Structures are given as structure tokens and as C-alpha cells.
Amino acid sequence: MHDVLVAGALLAVLSGVMNGLFTLPMRFLGRWSWENVWSVFIVGACLLLPAVVVAVSAPGSWSLLLEAPGRAEAIAVGTGFAWGFGAIMFGQSVSAIGIALANTFVLAISSAFGSLIPMLLLTPNKIHERAGHVVLAGIAVEICGIALCGRAGLLRERAAGGKSDQRGDLVGEARPLAAAFLLVIGSGLLSAVFNIGFALAQPIARFGQVQGLSEFASTNLIWVLMLGGGAISNLGFCVFLLLKNVSGRKFLQPGGARLYGLGLLMAALWGGSIFVYGLATPKLGSLGASIGWPLSLATGLLVANIVGLLLGEWKGVPRRAMGWMLSGIGILVAAIVILSRANQ
Which domain range does residue 184 map to? Predict the structure, then answer.
């Protein structure tokens, strides 16, 4: 049992690493407009990758979606559709304020709501037990670390503004901090819906296992529905912008193979993180969704801040800001350790 929990925790951390890296290619996609990049990313992450994973893991499982519990399927599609607008706002916020700061605020909000609500809905009795206390403690420590990283980010913004040498070839345009805050708040709340929907759609996975699917293959049925719902809202907005800005012609630019490749790399990293997370949660026991979610997001936040540092997003900022960030990262590591032990 201990080995299974350790494997689940490691998979959740791997999911976070992939999630923290997926926005990195946006740094090199400035030749395209935001809607070009995001539409390629969404097609790859929400449509192509799920289809490939399901075809490889359980080719005959598509027909089971016609027989799975209808209420759970409606929840999966509906929450996926709602999450799609959060994904749009997240993509816009990365362009607005950079990889590190956008991830800090979005993952903070998403971690808190996405961890607590599944526990309260599915296993409310756990809140009064040791495991629930450890989850709450881990989230509290994580929020402290996130607050320190956020403080560092604010100091960075005040010192550096939107200097182009910090943005590099980042796709999209910088925005005022107030507008960026609205984007990250909306994105964080709707991103939490993604984990809530996954937790509430578990009857689909249980149905798949009864029909003979493996744990991994049955969970993939949930992801297909949720990601499909998210693709509708994301691609709808992208098509609107492509028509409005007449940016569809950029898909035909010379040398576009590199741009398509980077967009699909984004899809592989983020989409892969979702399927790895789906593999991790069953191994973490009855509190899998409440433990795995903050564990994955805290790791992703840690990685995203390191990426931002290496890319020069913190270049020229006061030493005090760097101190805040390093302190926050240290506390986030402590939160990861606490959350990984919640089910032991």
C-alpha cells in the first residue's frame, strides 16, 4: 500500500512538472497571434491527444460512452466547457504578465478551491479525520508559499514594468496589472471546476472498470468528455478572434513548421499532464482528488517560477523580490511533502 501511495505522489509531481513547463513554448511564438497559438494547442491537447490515448489504451472503449451514467457524462462535459473559459483566461494572462506571475495566482486559487470542494462533496467526514487535517494543513502552508511568490511577482512588476527584454518573443501583448488580476482570478476559479468535475464524474470510471477496462483506461473516458467540452469553448473563442483580427493567414506563414511544432509541444506537455494526473489520483486513495490536485499544482507553480527565472522574467528586479520568491519556493516544497503524506 505504501509503494502505491508513493507512486501516486510521484505521478502527481510529474504531472505538475509537465503543467509548469507547458507555457514555455509561448515564449518563442511571437510571430503568431495569440489565437493562432491557442487554437493549435487546444486541437492537439483536447482533441488529438485524447483520441490517441484512448485508441492505444482501450480501442474498444468508445462505445462504452453510449452506456455510461448519463448524469456523470453531463457533469463531465459541462464542467469541461466551463473550464474552457478558464483556460482562455489563463492563456491571456500568460501573455499579459508572464509565465511565473500568471501561474502563481492561477494555481493558488485553483489549488485551494479544487482541493477542498471535492473533499466536501465526496468525503465530508474526512474533514474531521487525520487525513483531512493534513490536507488542510498542506493547503494552508501552500497558500503561504503562494502568497510569498505573489509578493515577489508584484515587486517584480513594479520594478520592471513590461520591458520587452523580459518578455522575449512571448506571444500576445502585455496588459495593465489590474486587468491581468481579473484574468487570473477568473481563470483560477474556473480551473478549480476542472478538478471538481473530474471528482464528480467518477461514476464513469467505475462503470468502465465494471466493463473490464483498466483503471487508467476507464479514467480516460472522463478526460475525453471533459476535454471535448473544453475544446468547444476554447475553439469558439479562437475562431472569433481569428475572424475579428484576420489572423488566420498567419497559419500559412513561411517557416510555419517550427511554430506548429511548438504549439503541439504545448499540447503534449499539458495534455500529458492531465492523463498522468488521472493515473495518479486512484493510487492516492479516497482523498486522491484532494491530495493529487494541490500536489500537482504546487509542483507546477514551482517549475513555472524556475522557468520564469531562467528566461529572465526576474532580470533586474530588486534583491528583496528574489528573496521573497526563494522563500515562497521553499515553503511550497514543504507543502508538497505534507500533502504527499496525507493518506499515510
Answer: 2-340
